[in-house]
Amino acid sequence: MVKKRAKSLAPDAVGVKTIAVSDLVPNPHNPRTLFDREPLDTLRASIAKVGILVPLTVYWDDDATTYVILDGQRRWMCAKELALPKVPVNHVAKPTLVQNIVTMFQIHKLREDWELMPTALKLEVLMGEMRERNDRRLAELTGLDRAVVSRCKKLLSYPRKYQDMMLDPDPEKREKADFFIELYSVRNDRFVNQMPWYSNNPFTQRMLEKYRSPASGLKAVTDFRLMKQHINNARKAGQEKAITKRLREFTEDDSLSLDHLVLRSANVSASARALLRDVERLAEAVRQIDVNEFYGEENLWRRLEQLMTAIRAKLVAAGRRLTQ
After folding, report:
1. pLDDT tens-digit map of 97-133
2. Range of 127's domain?
3. E strands along the chain, which residues?
4. DSSP 195
């Protein structure tokens, strides 16, 4: 069903020909809007040496009275810089808006990844046009990995101010999408959003400032995973008030490291839960032992005796009453 629908989204082929560079314009619906200088220079050098080996894919737009590029904008940009008079093109019928975006996603799915924010913006248009939000179906339509679709949708949850930071044409000034994707789990945590002092955008701005500052306690985007972990551990240990206070202090004070969010009681509680799971698994394994079958396994019995001695010693130290 999906394959049939995807096939209907592909524009019909018209033919291969040569078109003047000046008769082409970029596609206004191209999900790729950022073209960094270094890879462009590499492509231009290749075209200068051997020419354009792969034709551009274009369609004729009656309204604009020109050819629009579906695939090959970088090749066209390089051709203009090299003052080439014409370029080879594969002419297809004018696509619908949905066909346009889907075709471009499909064309580029096996190439170097685009920056995620421009991709997310075109995915947003596609979701609106098709009234589709399911990650799996969007992945099948576009050829994007489901994880990429999910990451794009996270970026779309941010205000335009932060989206624009990821769209800066200068790669040195451009904020990485990974920062906002990793922050998402904390920024959208229900418990965090209920903290009296918390507000989404000021918190996002402070995290961005801390991440930019080499003197702050935030060193890598993956630190947000640890932040989320510390918050979860504190909640499970019933330390909601303490972690609320600690997170606010960490947010406001650049001198504090992530360790400030570690509550000893919460940390111990998390370790106890992990140990309890191990004990339960071991207890079940011991119950399943067939004594006759394992009768001659001396190392096993010796280790079980040592384990019993260690357990009894810990129970005594904890003041627990021992039963025979």
Report:
1. 888 778 777 766 545 556 789 889 888 988 988 888 8
2. 2-155
3. 13-20, 24-25, 56-61, 66-71, 86-92
4. S
